């Protein structure tokens, strides 16, 4: 994932999936495909957010080194992530100039 200079990754959707579904493209099936299954992996969002959230670019390898051991060892793993690139908010306005110290009013002495 990557964004243009000056913008950051805003993660919108993260899904960790085991099985099939994208081998032949959306809506198509391969003859060897079985049904998709969802392996229990509640911290997938946290892993991707940690690696990519608010960064200009990142890569998320779907490996045991990154995600830990899998419950579904014999099946292909997929990580679906959708994101947008957003510009950072503008910097805050500068503070107002300091007020001068109090001075004696010459008109008050007369």
From TrEMBL:
Gene3D superfamilies: 2.60.120.740
Database matches in Pfam families: SUEL_Lectin
Domain SUEL-type lectin: 1-86
GO MF term set: carbohydrate binding
UniProt entry tagged with the keyword Repeat: yes
Chain segments carrying region Disordered: 87-110
Keyword list, A-Z: Repeat
Keyword Repeat belongs to the record: yes
Start-end of Pro residues biased regions: 87-99
Coiled coil: none
Name of the protein described by the UniProt record: Putative latrophilin Cirl-like
Lineage: Eukaryota, Metazoa, Chordata, Craniata, Vertebrata
